[in-house]
Please model this.
Amino acid sequence: MAAMAKTNFTHAQRYAIFTAHSEKCWLCREPVSLAEMEVDHVIPESLAKHAALKDILKLMGLPEDFNLNSYANLLPAHRDCNRDKGAYRFKPTPMFIRILDQGLEKAKHVQKLHDTFLSTRKLNTAFSRILAAIEEGKLSPEQMKELAAAAAIEHEPQREPEMHGQPLFLSPGLRVVGEDEHFHYLKGLSGMTGYRPKGNNIDISFDCPNCGPTGWNGTRCIQCGMLIDPD
Model:
């Protein structure tokens, strides 16, 4: 049997799935950046034409006409988490059924966010530019700062309640490893951990001139390791 073609998702779909599911990877439950987020089929897309699909859906408590490409089956994931999962078929445990139920419950909300993205010019422009730049591999620090600031303003009203006031992660690799009343404690691509203040009005000094929004370990960026001399 020939391999099934992978679904290509639009900017509106990626944004809606990312936002509706609290900007977190469904597999590890850690924050995922928009840049590295992949849209994952909870029940693998490769089963769409599989003879056993009908029985699998029955075991999961899903209708026979359940669409594997519907928003009920599409969740955000880290690239590494998604690759580790691959085409693995989860057993119908209570936890997995709960995840499927949440997908079903949020499907209409994802569609609403999708439509809002298309109809709201500033939101569409800000995130489409970011996603296009990510796809092309051309996102300078200056662009990141400019686009992130515009995106955060338009994005905040669309976020899930628990995400209001939280940092918007657009660049890949930043993981939240802890928090307190005033700071998020982050781990970057370099392997270093550092901190970034909570809230929306964060001083520009907390952005790295080399790679954009980041966390700091003393005077060193935890993303790229760049050392900034204090004033």
Observations:
- Confidence is low (pLDDT under 50) at residues 1-5.
- The first helix runs from residue 11 to 20.
- The helical segments are 11-20, 53-59, 79-85, 94-119, 121-136, 141-155.
